[in-house]
Amino acid sequence: MGVLAWAEACDPNPTITTEGSDKPSAEETEEPGKPAMEGKGDDNADKDGAEREQEALDAFRKAKISECQANLDKAAGWEAFVLDARCGMRVQTGTESLKWYRRRMGWR
Fold this sequence. Notes:
By secondary structure, the chain is mainly α. The protein has helices at 2-9, 26-29, 43-76, 85-105.
């Protein structure tokens, strides 16, 4: 489960749903039968939208990294005889990778 969470966090184009968004999408605001106007809006709105999108992406990735860490902690807490060298090294490598990723992203 931790590997799946890691893979989702590292996806370059994840599908993120922003529930509770009070702004309608572009398709919702356009009238049927009218072509979309190109170049509408200003650059500040585009920057704000990009910043919100980046914040949503960071929040999504932080949640997935936390999920991955929780699964690794659960696996590390299993009884010693179950965690032989093969599994123990994988858990340790995963934990070290998460520490590296958090430092790289500045999420300490």
